[in-house]
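TICKET: design request
STATUS: open
ATTACHED STRUCTURE:
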């Protein structure tokens, strides 16, 4: 039973949640495949993507779940949340309405998950500076009030995308090890 075999045992389920079109699928596409899709398309066939990560010299597999667009109908099922140990709670900094929905998503997360899920609040589309409707300070303040990590990202220009996923995975690793 080598160190390598042991490392393979780290498999963390992480869920992407937040309103429709905030950029959840593109954050995953950027992180896992370094791709970006200019137009929105729902996830087809793929429920999750597994990404190997190195945290403190240990190989960790992050199993990242994306919705198939069912958030539009408020129909994200409990199966989606089951077993999740991490979450990226995403809003669009250019649409205040998606920021106002964060409380609803937090409730949903807390209702459906049996453990304390390591969560980062993610303000996506930071590249669209001129269209910003939610300030960085507001995002930070909400995260602090709710005990969440916080980061602004851009799936378009890659800024902070890996860092957001890594923050969650590192914290889960710290808690479990
Ligand atoms: P989802 O419904 O939350 O999965 O959102 P999508 O990933 O499908 O993205 C919705 C739309 O926003 C698409 O047209 C994307 O190209 C666009 N988008 C996603 N992330 C970004 C970003 O960081 N910056 C910009 N400018 N557009 C983005
Ligand atoms: Mg999507």
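STATUS: resolved
RESOLUTION: sequence designed for all positions
ATTACHED SEQUENCE:
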């Amino acid at each position: 039973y080598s160190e390598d075999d042991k490392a393979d045992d780290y498999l963390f389920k992480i869920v992407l949640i937040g309103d429709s079109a905030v950029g959840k699928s593109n954050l995953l596409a950027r992180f896992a495949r370094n791709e970006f899709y200019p137009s929105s398309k729902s996830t087809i066939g793929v429920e999750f993507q597994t990404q190997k990560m190195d945290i403190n010299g240990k190989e960790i597999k992050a199993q990242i779940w994306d919705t198939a667009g069912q958030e539009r109908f408020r129909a994200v099922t409990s199966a989606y949340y089951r077993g999740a140990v991490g979450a990226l709670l995403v809003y669009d900094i250019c649409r205040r309405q998606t920021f106002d929905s964060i409380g609803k998503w937090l409730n949903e997360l807390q209702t459906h998950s049996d453990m304390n899920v390591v969560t980062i609040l993610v303000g996506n589309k930071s590249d669209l500076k001129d269209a910003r409707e939610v300030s960085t300070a507001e995002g930070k303040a909400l995260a602090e009030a709710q005990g969440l990590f916080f980061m602004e990202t851009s799936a378009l220009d890659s800024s902070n995308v890996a860092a957001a996923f890594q923050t969650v995975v590192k914290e889960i690793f710290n808690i479990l090890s």
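CLOSING REMARK: The radius of gyration is 16 Å. The longest strand covers residues 48-55.
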